[in-house]
């Protein structure tokens, strides 16, 4: 499950490497990224329905799964591939109904390469970025921004964001790994400021009776 949400975005999503080596902050890219970040930070919460597609050219595999995530500040609730992850900012519950188990762990952002509540601010720390042009996605014009990590040991060597020219919304993002695998996240449905309360980001044991609890704290 770590693989799923470490690559999510944010879902949840983020160079042309030959150009990015000498570019710390491309002003054109930064302007687009700042507008996107401002849009999402102005919301109390948001909910995203997404499709994650994993492609492995070497194994000739292409698989897609659907999921949804609700984000508010540093909290999120993710449902994907038959599992749920609830993060209240301090504690993470990973619920695996098929396995009949729920694991509890401390939230440590430093251990996570990317988390769903970070995708819109990813570029602000540890990444270089460059404006890579414009494309069309679903009939809409999008800015293409490429991010590359400063850490050369990072197994993700590029994140490509597609940001709407019309309203600064993030349409999709693609992550490129050194092993050749590619992960694409496409936003299918977006809801701004959905109703959330304390229960949204809390684990209610009464709703998951019969599950074995494994406390890793």
UniProtKB/TrEMBL annotation:
Keyword Protein biosynthesis appears in the UniProt entry: no
CDD domains in alphabetical order: LolA
Keywords: Signal
Keyword DNA repair: no
InterPro entries cross-referenced by the UniProt entry: LolA/LolB/LppX, OM_lipoprot_carrier_LolA-like
Pfam family, one: LolA
UniProt signal peptide: 1-20
Domain of life: Bacteria
Record protein name field: Cell envelope biogenesis protein LolA
Naturally occurring in which organism (per UniProt): Rufibacter tibetensis
């Amino acid at each position: 499950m770590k693989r799923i949400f470490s690559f999510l975005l944010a879902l949840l999503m983020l160079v042309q490497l030959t150009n990015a080596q000498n570019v710390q902050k491309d002003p054109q890219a930064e302007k687009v990224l700042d507008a996107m970040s401002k849009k999402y930070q102005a919301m109390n919460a948001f909910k995203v329905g997404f499709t994650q597609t994993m492609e492995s050219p070497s194994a000739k595999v292409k698989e897609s799964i659907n999921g949804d995530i609700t984000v508010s500040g540093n909290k999120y609730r993710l449902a994907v591939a038959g599992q749920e992850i609830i993060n209240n900012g301090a504690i993470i519950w990973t619920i695996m109904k098929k396995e009949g188990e729920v694991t509890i762990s401390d939230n440590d952002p430093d251990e996570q390469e990317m988390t769903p509540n970070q995708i819109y601010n990813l570029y602000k720390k540890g990444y270089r970025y460059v404006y890579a042009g414009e494309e069309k996605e679903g009939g809409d014009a999008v800015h293409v921004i490429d991010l590359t990590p400063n850490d050369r040991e990072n197994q993700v060597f590029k994140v490509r964001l597609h940001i709407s020219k019309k309203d600064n919304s993030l349409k999709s993002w693609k992550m490129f790994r050194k092993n050749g695998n590619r992960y694409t996240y496409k936003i299918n449905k977006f809801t701004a400021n959905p109703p959330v309360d304390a229960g949204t980001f809390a684990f209610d044991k009464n709703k998951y009776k019969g599950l074995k609890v494994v406390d890793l704290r």
